[in-house]
User: Fold this.
Amino acid sequence: MSNILTTRSGPPSAVSRTSGVTVIAQDAGLYGLDRPGTAWDWMRQSGQPPTGADWVRPKVADAWARCVDEHHLPTGVDFAPRLDPVLTCPEDFELWRREWSSAFTASLSAMAYDFRSYLDESSVTLVLCDPLGKVFYVLDAGLNIRPGGVAMARIGADWRECNIGNTGIGTACLLRVPAAFNGREHFSPAFHPYATAGCPIASPDGGIVAFVGLITDRRDAASLMLGFLKLACRLLEANLFDSFFSTGRLLRLRDGDVTASSSGPESLVEGLVAVKEEGRISGVNQSALHLLGASTHIDVIGKELSSFLRVDLAACEGFDSVVLAHSNSGRPLRVERRLFGPLTNVPRARTERKSREEPSDTAPVAPFSALNAEWRDLILDAALQKAANLQAQNIPLLITGESGVGKDYLVRRLHGCGSRKDRMLVAINCAAIPRELIESELFGYEGGSFTGARSKGKRGKFLEADKGMLFLDEIGDMALDLQATLLRVLESSEITPIGGTRSIPIDVRVVAATNCSLPDMVQKGAFRRDLYYRLNGVQLWLPPLRERPDRLQLIAHLLRQEWQSLGLEEEKEPSDDVWRVFFKHPWPGNIREARNVVRAVLAVTRGRRINIDDLPRDFLQEMNVRPNPAPASLDEAPAFADERASVGRPVDAPGELADWEARAVHSALASSGGNVAKAARSLGITRATLYHKMARYGLRSDRRIVSRN
Ligand SMILES: Nc1ncnc2c1ncn2[C@@H]1O[C@H](COP(=O)(O)OP(=O)(O)OP(=O)(O)O)[C@@H](O)[C@H]1O
Assistant:
């Protein structure tokens, strides 16, 4: 290395090392060299950022130069994130987070089912940051990256470039444009094991409302992630669009002639235009700008719609009516119009922070007047709406999510509001029925067909559910040979009872649910691929409680429900500390656990105020599990100095949840002497979930392994 450290402008140019052709380094590994890595080593030793573009991409060289010259960050060392007291205003962040969390939750939840499988399959973690680069939402608690997760994938982490060096997220926040970096293109070595990408989410008036960031430990995946991220942000913007307006009209624009069946390739995201009563444009998304022939928001906001679009709005008065219009350049467009409805629970647009002087609620995580607030479960509503549409089209549904997130609850609500609500909903827990009985349970049997059979025979669950709904819960636990039989029935819509010769036609809507990863099971040969595709017409994923930004409102709702059902006269109100615990707790048993905790609390609390002492002991102990630094994953985790200092504190970050969870699982197994059923009971989760978690953390239930640490 030392021979290439002689120039102050960077490592020697690629020109001298190759055949005289100037090569712009795009990626690590060009000509077998880790080019950004070499440049980074050079920067570490010289203390200077490279100035040439032939060893790192110009964007990387610029970012490194900013880190050294403007942010004055130390080169080549793992440094603690800076905390700038002027830019870091916790009250602002809290206000902002509260205001936006539910809007993002609703939009994200509508997309999360689709996002989730991408994130899981590609080991990517998603974070949402406020306009200054502070994380207010983490989609998978950072667990996708590796057990332990990246320390910065936690709520409140500050990703600004001046704080931690260039990352896709911090640099996107600074430059207000999408950005992505591969491993050694990051200034801080803490990010060298990762690739990061960030992209702004624009509000309809052209402001920036948030940033979406992706982090993966596939450190060469930056450009791949960026492509996906840009598209995801356009979809998210479209989903959020409505939440900025309460009055006026929304026009949906698509390319092409209303009468033409095909008008060439279309943008995946339709154009959205918000128009005030008096006909002025108050908001547009990127696709609409393109369709209207404008380049920036400034060109259109506040201008008359008629100066961009020749359309007879009265003609699309009716619901679902679409009319043909033309942009001023003569481009044919299909236009659909609707009124913005009354919005509930969703904040109005505000892309600027409130001034510091405004009164703020200083309790950091308490849901203010959540106990009295009217609250709607937008995540459940979004899932229900999607499920109902799919059911109407007879598309099979597979509901996934951890134990206790509400899969069963969703199915019951779905049945209650669907066209088959007057027919039976028949639920089968595939894990609970003994293997040898499941066939007769599902398909029934003819009288006297086997020893012990009833003389009159028995109708199976399929027949009971005829014209209604059949809910196959814990489908991942069904034995392989039965999977083949089930598939046959689903394909043919006929059953033959055991001992019978006659096939009986059936008409059932099948919904399946699982907390296992069926794709993993398919991979391992434990679940039939063809059955997986048959059941998985569309997958609905319900997020774990710890990942729900509205978890405090949900817990407040459970509290209200429980005290009403107990007929208690005096309302009970959790203290701020209790709300903080509820917010930070990892809730491995999800909503089921929350309901149990709320019930226990109501049983012991005397007086109006619920204090920390009223919380169940084991629930509190779960928060104080002290992570040992033993596992390799912790040592290797690219934590910053102050993040490391937090080890041993009560868990307070989704990024630390994997450690917490691994240890909670470990300690439950250790105290149950390796008895999985007992350990699962003590954690408030099902056995299947516990096995899943044990596999994730490489734990086995025998005494030797469990007592290893
Ligand atoms: N959105 C919700 N609002 C209020 N209560 C809920 C909600 N979702 C679930 N619950 C409650 O949480 C508990 C667990 O829900 P449910 O049994 O549907 O979870 P699940 O995902 O099916 O769990 P498992 O995978 O272990 O079967 C139930 O008491 C249910 O009433």
In short: The longest helix spans residues 90-122. The chain has five domains: 2-56, 90-241, 249-338, 396-536, 632-706.
